[in-house]
Amino acid sequence: MMREGDACVALLRSKLHGLVERNRSLEEENKQLRHQVSRLKGQVSSLEGQDTDRKMLWKKLDNSSTGNSYLKEKQFVPNNDAKEAMDLNSTSCYSRQQFSRAPLVRSRAPRVPNPPPSPTYTQPIVNARKEGGMAPPPPPPPLPSRLLKSTKAVQRVPDVVELYRLLVRREGKNDAKSGSMGIPAATNSREMIGEIENKSAYVLAIKSDVENQSEFINFLAVEVKNAAYKEIADVEEFVKWLDGELSYLVDERAVLKHFPNWPEKKADTMREAAFTYRDLKNLESEASSFHDDRRVATPMALKRMQALQDKIEQGIHNTERARDSASGRYKDLKIPWEWMLDSGIISQLKMASLKLAREFMNRVVNALKSDPFTNDEELLLQGVRFAFRIHQLAGGFDEGCRKAFQELKMYASKSD
């Protein structure tokens, strides 16, 4: 009887410990959520204040324009804060500006452009042979030694597929792909101010830039036409420089359409390549540097890792789908395209996925060890399903993932 009583006491203590730990994690999660709500409220209040200030400013301008304002000469000043983000799908970039309502506009001094950034490697211009043929294109650049080393370390683990099928069969249902965290459509929360009634200042400002900035624009056109880079990172720096220079204009599209020599197709394609690469590189960096915060509750931590993996797979899918058509356009315009190959950014994203798989499996194992109230079957299936998903994507596991999977497999064998 004493032994049974001791066993009951031990069980109750274990349950109490589990409840205390769960309560602590929930309190921490609640604290973080309250902090986020407070921060978001502050941002909303700030945006509402800015909107109110803008409406008051326009009201004052309307009132002042009804008097003798036509006798006063006002200088046109563009608002650089009104420049909107580029739409990558249409490969267009519109700079929306706000203008003063004054009927007279002072001409701005011609812009002196800053020099373009120095490339790490400039692609040589290929000359035609005497017989009219072109020299063969250079071979793709070799993989970095770090990436090549990690790629060789990835090996297929048949146990992952076997365990996954076993648990799914036991669950009595087919594998269902985890819900795709679709990228929400970008919404603009700021209300656009109504169209300015007096458009003469806007038209005169564009005409002034066309007349006074022609030398500046012709310089940029030559730089874009002659741009030929080997590394996509150099294209990214060039596009950053180009957008910074063009932001000086009143309205980029409205001014440039008056210059038939402006290489619009190449400029927009360079932007497309640079922004696509930057987004994928940022995603790879986020996944590679991901660290599982143990203070976050297990369900929320697993959801974060799944959401990040969803974005990685979506990025890989989009790159593979657009690669054939994009690579041809990039070659014609002397824009590097090798980074879109499986040995480029896609391989780096797959290596980053292995980091997520290791963190995910370790979190599942730690939850099974520390929480006696965990639904073992459900959590095991979730861990094995995520491991199988990345195993198939990356073509295997590295050493760290193999060790984490062995621990997960050990818990699965105990539950049989």
Automatic annotation (TrEMBL):
Signal peptide: none annotated. GO terms for biological process: protein localization to cortical microtubule cytoskeleton. Keywords: Coiled coil. The keyword Coiled coil applies. Residues 100-145 are annotated as: Disordered. PANTHER family: CHUP1-LIKE PROTEIN, PROTEIN CHUP1, CHLOROPLASTIC. This is Uncharacterized protein. InterPro entries: CHUP1/IPGA1-like (IPR040265). It comes from the Eukaryota. GO terms for cellular component: cortical microtubule. Residues 9-50 form a coiled coil. It comes from Oryza barthii. Residues 135-144 have a biased composition (Pro residues).
